[in-house]
Amino acid sequence: MFKDLNPILHSQLRLAVVSILIGVKEAEFTYLREKTNSTAGNLSVQINKLKEAGYIDVSKQFKDNYPLTICKITPQGVQAFEEYVKDLQSYLYIKK
Amino acid sequence: MEDNPLTEQESLELITRMINKTKHDYLDTGVSALLWGSVISISSLLSFASYYQNWGWGEWVWWLTYLAVIPQIIISWRDKKKRKYRTYSEDAMGGIWISFGISMFLLSYYNSLFHIPHAGAVFLVIYGVPTFATGFTRSFRPMIIGGIACWILAILSMRTPFPYSMLYNFIAAQLAWFIPGLILRRRYLKAKKQHV
Fold it and tell me: Number of structural domains, chain B?
């Protein structure tokens, strides 16, 4: 039997965010918005869901007097992502 | 991008696309490499020429490298300010170049006290380390070649007296930093033009 795909990650925008964060140490909110071509509102909601699941850390700072949101993947997020990719591969393998 | 459901195939494609987007996103401006390539090249040539011209200030030429630290700090600070993300490899590279700078400073001080024989060769060995490491980490062949060139020139320099060893220093600075810097700068300007 196959495990169900992790519902937190099996969503277009959340998966895109985690895929970006897996390759970097940390990224600004504006960078994630640029790379995912998403709206600030939608991205904010999805980032919050990932944060609540413990997959990413979100910190607020200031840069030139403007608020800055920085996102970073957590070890729990890395593990969830790796398991998700493994599950995906097993699904695709059986479909072939 | 919306929050639509995905098929397994689409998920894999999305992951690959996003990872590639960040992988090819970082572009070095090439300014630091050009700065150090120029400073070391000029210092080496002036040091070589001063031997024949008997310039009184010839021995102070290498102080230029200390002066170049000031624009380097400004370049790094501006670059850091512009960046919207940080990668582990860039942080590691930063650490390697800072270690290189400190090693060069200490070695210069040691050389001023005890006059290392064929000091140019020792400096060339050290030039090769961060250059090769940067080229290797970023898969940037010109810097890999530059790093190896520094080590080959170091071997030659061990058997070459001053001031001729300064010519090897000049070649090393050109191959390790100036030429790779020009290539990086061209790539950067080309990419910038495409994004405008």
Answer: 1
Q: Is residue B2 part of a domain?
A: no
Residue A62, beta-bridge partner list: A67
Structural domain includes residue B57:
yes
Give me the domain span that covers residue B74. Answer: 30-194
Q: Answer yes or no: do B91 and A92 touch at CB < 8 A.
A: no
Note the pLDDT tens digit of each residue in A25-40: 999 999 999 999 999 9
Residue B16 domain-assigned? no
DSSP assignment of A55-94: SEEEEEEEETTEEEEEEEE-HHHHHHHHHHHHHHHHHHHH
Q: What confidence tens digit (pLDDT) does each residue in B161-179 have?
A: 989 999 999 999 999 999 9
The whole-angstrom distance between A55's CA and the closest CA on chain B is 16
Q: ipTM exceeding 0.95?
A: no
B contacts of A34 (beta carbons < 8 Å): 84
A35 and B87 in contact by Cβ < 8 A?
no
Q: Are strands B85-86 and A56-63 parallel, antiparallel or unpaired?
A: unpaired
Q: Is the pLDDT of residue B195 over 70?
A: no
Query: A95 pLDDT exceeds 80?
Result: no
Q: Do A20 and B8 touch (CB under 8 A)?
A: no
Q: What distance in Å separates the CA atoms of residue A10 and residue B116, rounded to the nearest whole number?
A: 62
**B3 domain-assigned:** no
Note whether B92 contacts A: Cβ–Cβ < 8 A: no
Whether A59 contacts A66, CB under 8 Å: no
A68 touches chain B (CB under 8 A): no
Is the CB of residue B4 less than 8 Å away from at least one CB of chain A? yes
**Chain-chain contact of B8 with A34 (C-beta, under 8 angstroms):** no
**pTM of the entire structure?**
0.84
